[in-house]
Every structure is written in structure tokens, then in C-alpha cells.
Design brief:
By secondary structure, the protein is an all-beta fold. Helices cover 0% and strands 53% of the residues.
Length: 115
């Protein structure tokens, strides 16, 4: 079965960095786009970044462009989200996702940006 397991979240001060990882299994990872979403308290889930199968193309939410970088390692079946210059408004639960016949989600990892 499809499994997505996120890790790397935590508490960081404004301006700091975190690297999220999502380990995938149960589907042909290298053949599917991967996407990071986030959901802040009281807000709808929003798409943060997406990456094509080879990593040759990426897309970002406007507010994270230039600060976040999505990447993938197909050999390790892992997708990453490097987050730099974090801001309090980046505080949210971050989820990785894949659409493989239907949409699958990981359990999420909490990112809190606060001084």
C-alpha cells in the first residue's frame, strides 16, 4: 500500500531553516509528480511546491518562491523541501502528497516559526 512518511519539522526562529523529507513506498515513485502542501490552524490546506518525475521542473506558492526549494531523489524514493528564511506565517503542518489513482497524504510534520 502507498505510504508517505514526513520528517524534519520542528521549532525554528524567524530567518532560520529546516529541511523536510518525505519517504515514499508502495507505488512507482519515479513515475509520479510529488507535491508538498501545508495547513495552518483555521486555514485551508494549500499547495506549497510540486516537482515533476525527474525533477526537471518545479512550481511554488508565490509566498515561498525564492525561499523554499523542492527536490527529489528517485533512488531513495524521497522528496525534500528545503525551507530557508522562514517566517512566522510559514507555521503549519506540512504534508507530502501523490496522486496515484487517488490522492494519498502523509501524516504531516509540524513546522513552527517563532521567536
Amino acid at each position: 500500500q502507498v505510504q508517505l512518511v514526513e520528517s524534519g519539522g520542528g521549532l525554528v526562529q524567524p530567518g532560520g531553516s529546516l529541511r523536510l523529507s518525505c519517504a515514499a513506498s508502495g507505488f512507482p515513485f519515479s513515475s509520479y509528480y510529488m507535491t508538498w502542501y501545508r495547513q495552518a490552524p483555521g486555514k485551508e490546506r494549500e499547495l506549497v511546491a510540486t516537482i515533476t518525475t525527474t525533477g526537471s521542473s518545479t512550481g511554488y506558492l508565490g509566498s515561498v518562491k525564492g525561499r523554499f526549494t523542492i527536490s527529489r531523489d528517485n533512488a531513495k524514493k524521497t522528496v525534500y523541501l528545503q525551507m530557508n528564511n522562514l517566517k512566522p506565517e510559514d507555521t503549519a503542518v506540512y504534508y507530502c502528497s501523490v496522486h496515484y489513482y487517488r490522492t494519498y497524504w502523509g501524516q504531516g510534520t509540524q513546522v513552527t516559526v517563532s521567536s
